[in-house]
From TrEMBL, chains A, B:
<dbReference type="GO" id="GO:0006189">
    <property type="term" value="P:'de novo' IMP biosynthetic process"/>
</dbReference>
<dbReference type="InterPro" id="IPR016301">
    <property type="entry name" value="Ade2_fungi/plant"/>
</dbReference>
<dbReference type="InterPro" id="IPR013815">
    <property type="entry name" value="ATP_grasp_subdomain_1"/>
</dbReference>
<comment type="pathway">
    <text>Purine metabolism; IMP biosynthesis via de novo pathway; 5-amino-1-(5-phospho-D-ribosyl)imidazole-4-carboxylate from 5-amino-1-(5-phospho-D-ribosyl)imidazole (carboxylase route): step 1/1.</text>
</comment>
<dbReference type="InterPro" id="IPR054350">
    <property type="entry name" value="PurT/PurK_preATP-grasp"/>
</dbReference>
<protein>
    <recommendedName>
        <fullName>Phosphoribosylaminoimidazole carboxylase</fullName>
        <ecNumber>4.1.1.21</ecNumber>
    </recommendedName>
</protein>
<dbReference type="Pfam" id="PF00731">
    <property type="entry name" value="AIRC"/>
</dbReference>
<dbReference type="InterPro" id="IPR040686">
    <property type="entry name" value="PurK_C"/>
</dbReference>
<dbReference type="InterPro" id="IPR003135">
    <property type="entry name" value="ATP-grasp_carboxylate-amine"/>
</dbReference>
<dbReference type="InterPro" id="IPR033747">
    <property type="entry name" value="PurE_ClassI"/>
</dbReference>
<dbReference type="GO" id="GO:0005524">
    <property type="term" value="F:ATP binding"/>
</dbReference>
<dbReference type="InterPro" id="IPR005875">
    <property type="entry name" value="PurK"/>
</dbReference>
<dbReference type="InterPro" id="IPR011761">
    <property type="entry name" value="ATP-grasp"/>
</dbReference>
<dbReference type="InterPro" id="IPR016185">
    <property type="entry name" value="PreATP-grasp_dom_sf"/>
</dbReference>
<keyword id="KW-0658">Purine biosynthesis</keyword>
<feature type="domain" description="ATP-grasp">
    <location>
        <begin position="110"/>
        <end position="298"/>
    </location>
</feature>
<dbReference type="GO" id="GO:0004638">
    <property type="term" value="F:phosphoribosylaminoimidazole carboxylase activity"/>
</dbReference>
């Protein structure tokens, strides 16, 4: 396919997965890293790897002499050497050394982004203890104190909650041995990430926006696609792509972002390489971030970045202690989990917090995904607060709305049915005629909030079900409510006779029980648990009648 | 996960993909094969592979001394040595040497299957030229003459169409230097294959039945799942599992079958190892055949064999000549094909007919799959006859049924909507009143066959939707069909006014378009792709009206 030889600075798990992707394309990769058996070297037997530090100029030069293109799997490399090689035009380097230089220094990176009008959290340089006071005056407590360089996976961050914390913070961060800066404390509601890939000739594609959960500043869990409204996700993608455009060079970029309560999105940091939040792409996307990194730096066509499954998650397997067996307990669980794929990195030594592997889980729906990942997450931490059972329980699947509280008696049996089937639902008043804007908002947001079905009850000139159906892509079930005149036929016709293009699933007049049952059936098509409950319900129903048959036979019709 | 070391006899592409799967589980594999850089050795740098023939007893013994379990990636190994090692209980061997011995000799294999009541094509031993005449008398012309041993990838088969061909056939097959047998000529309508995996403790799981297309007796194309009716596919799976049960040992077995015109299924041959027809499982299934082979021989839990995508194909990349660039033209096409993943095997030398790699393509539907694979197939052969675009998906998500063919004009727009949204569906006649038992069968089976929604259209005393709803736990959408009297109100009431307990989602009279759209919405709640398509559909619908607004503004109402 391509005969150019690639040299990679760094031979950890990211390098390993790059090698895996390259091997499938018969592309040769040579690794520069100190351990003779570093994860990436283990699965590439045809190259003569270089055993040495990726900060060592001589070793980098040696690598450059043996390959056609240099790339990195870690940004903390000797960038001066790369700049020299680049300026002497001795070798192609992706990403551009200038990009690596900016990324290495988080303060420089934030300044660069800020100057290019990419939204970032407020930050300020910290040169001495006095400047901390200035930062506090500006941003108040709590204040985030951060190392500018060599900060990753939770190292190099410290929160200052009050003046008493300052000394401790400075000590932890090396008392100005490493340069520091401070950031305004910004409590986000969610962390988002986007992998962006750009080719030599500028073609750019983005992977889906994912949500990430960090624990002690290390990536713990990734959910793809992110469960948030599409406007926010669209903005996240836009910001990520705009941010990547400010950097030179091609390849894959990981953009990590904070989503604030008010919908504001800040770029937290960028990695100019494949990223932990993109591991899931191996099993869940049409082309993985690793293959696309290889393709893009070789100027080959970039593959599709779309999901090929409805939902996916990635769980990091971090060392619990130096006991490997203990650490691998989530993997043992994953062996019996449908849709789970285990990736171990071949690291010889297990240490607390060390990235030993990851597990990708794919599923047909987000709810199935949660069912699959929860037992694995529990093996990591029995009381894992990132576990999504509570969320999927609270998260209603069905929304019941009615035009007026006078419809409640008619809709109550529907709510009771959902409750008896253990379906999470919400119930509210939304009137098409009296609260039209509320109706628009409700219908527009419904699928974003995770609803799967809307049940709308209305009487007379019953517009609510049809209007909601006109505003949402979700299925809407309409319950015609019987009024004082016309026996509910007015309402039935108003709901059922929708024009071509916008359907409403209409059920019998006043029969909201059936609306609930129909909603359960719709869920049951995809959630086996509800399918089974519906079968049991139908059996019970049948048995109730059969019992009456028996009684009738026994007692006779005269005495029944 | 598991510290047992595996030794593999053979280091070709199957071995390579075994190594890939094993590496992800940190399981060590040592390869025995002659080339120092055989495909499997290239991606495993931590083992001290053995360079030698997998038929050489000393080399096999050397391998056995260095590992805990032996397995094979090719069955043409020295089975006597394996039997000795096994009988001396010196090492675990999977599959059982006895199984390998049977499989090696196709005549023995067929005899074994036949004795175990597995359906195979009629066959007869050929010991000399005279016995060919006996075979002709028994089976007539054309007659298949086959080598018993060392026959694979098209080698060792010859068709005898008339007496004149006999000398040529015998010459081609080595004039009795290798033992021969003959088979009745059996023109199949389709070739099917099933990968079956069995663990040490007897747990057995099957991958989906796939259809395979061979060219010059070499696997060319695999389509998963096979596009045929579910009863036939169910039988194929049953026969494959029954056949595997007749063999000792665990691991993955590839079962190739012929489907005849009359629905009869014959087992053609069995491979006691991962198989070309299972390559697609890497990208398309929850756990690949390679990982499951590893897991099963290590007595680890077998992973799910289900598809994780709706449809997949595998195209073999065979050497067109010794020109690698020419051979790789389908891969170049695949680089720009969504859902395509290229696997090259690292073979140094390209030769005509040599397996150089394969391409897997995944898709959201069978029709999308054909769209994606056709341009790739064309790069292999401009006039490839194995391509058809007209086949419909037999794994439908929606079932459309109607009481009578006279309802078809009313239901057609529904089918067209589903087609335009790329929803796999089936359409048939099921009458509540004229085919009540067919209706019961249809409704009872629907969810088992994977349907998610049933759309039922009926007129007059329209019982079909409600009766089907009474028999299935799935959501049923009812389409009232307008008759000659009563304007369809009879049908509407018959469908919508269901009793408490059994709901039917009723839509407007004769408006089957809306039934299709409602089904898409129900799928879209759980399958993001359909949700997005529904949003786009609604936007287009809105824009169409807005265009008319503009036109009306421009032209004025008098001239509109």
């Amino acid at each position: 396919m391509n005969s150019k030889r690639i040299g990679v600075l760094g031979g950890g798990q990211l390098g390993r997965m790059l090698v895996e992707a390259a091997s499938r394309l018969n592309i040769s990769i040579t690794i520069l890293d100190s351990p003779v058996d570093s994860p990436a070297k283990q699965i590439q037997a045809t190259s003569r790897h270089i055993h040495g530090d990726f900060k060592d100029p001589l070793k980098i030069q040696e690598l450059a002499q043996n390959v056609d293109i240099l790339t990195i799997e870690i940004e903390h490399v000797n960038v001066e050497t790369l700049e020299t090689l680049f300026s002497e035009k001795r070798i192609e380097i992706h990403p551009h050394p200038f990009t690596i230089r900016i990324i290495q220094d988080k303060f420089l990176q934030k300044t660069h982004l800020s100057q290019n009008e990419i939204p970032v959290v407020d930050f300020i340089d910290i040169s001495d203890r006095d400047s901390i006071n200035i930062a506090v005056k500006k941003f108040g407590y709590p204040l985030m104190l951060k190392s500018k360089t060599l900060a990753y996976d939770g190292r190099g961050n410290h929160i200052i909650k009050s003046e008493d914390d300052i000394t401790k913070a400075l000590e932890t961060l090396g008392n100005f041995k490493n340069p520091l800066y401070a950031e305004r404390w910004s409590p986000f509601v969610k962390e988002l990430a986007v992998m962006v890939v750009r080719s030599v000739d500028g073609v750019m594609k983005s992977y889906p926006v994912v949500e990430t959960v960090h624990k002690e500043n290390i990536c713990h869990l990734v959910i793809a696609p992110a469960q948030h409204d599409s406007i926010i996700l669209g903005r996240a993608k836009e910001i990520a792509e705009k941010a990547v455009l400010t950097f030179k060079g091609c390849g894959v970029f990981g953009v990590e972002m904070f989503l604030m309560k008010d919908g504001q999105i800040y770029v937290n940091e960028i990695a100019p390489r494949p990223h932990n939040s993109g591991h899931y792409t191996i099993e869940a996307c049409q082309t993985s971030q690793y293959e696309n990194h290889i393709r893009s730096i070789l100027n080959m066509p970039i593959g599709s970045t779309s999901l090929k499954v409805p939902a996916a998650a990635m769980i990091n397997v971090l060392g619990k202690s130096d006991n490997l067996q203990e650490t691998l307990s989530p993997c043992v669980e994953a062996l019996t989990t449908s849709g789970a794929t285990i990736h171990l990195y071949g690291k010889r030594e297990c240490r607390k917090g060390r990235k030993m592997g990851h597990i990708t889980i794919v599923a047909d729906s987000i709810s199935q995904l949660y069912e699959r990942i929860n037992p694995i997450l529990k093996m990591i931490d029995e009381n894992d607060s990132s576990i999504t059972t509570t969320r999927s329980n609270i998260q209603p699947l069905v929304g019941i709305i009615m035009g007026s509280d006078s419809d409640l008696p008619t809709l109550k049996p529907c709510a009771e049915i959902l409750k008896s089937f253990d379906v999470p639902f919400e119930l509210s008043i939304v009137s098409a005629h009296r609260t039209p804007m509320r109706m628009v908002q409700y219908a527009k947001d419904a699928h974003v909030r995770g609803l799967k079905v809307i049940i709308a009850g209305a009487g007379g000139a019953a517009h609510l079900p049809g209007m909601v159906a006109a505003l949402t892509p979700l299925p809407v079930i309409g319950v015609p409510v019987k009024g004082k005149t016309l026996d509910g036929v007015d309402s039935l016709y108003s709901i059922v006779q929708m024009p071509r293009g916008i359907p409403v699933a209409t059920i019998a007049i006043n029969n909201s029980t059936n609306a609930g049952l129909l909603a359960v059936r719709q869920l049951g098509s995809f959630i086996p648990n509800y399918l089974q409950k519906m079968q049991e319900f139908m059996e019970r129903q049948e048995n109730e009648v059969l019992t009456k048959v028996e009684k009738l036979d026994k007692v006779g019709w005269e005495n029944y």
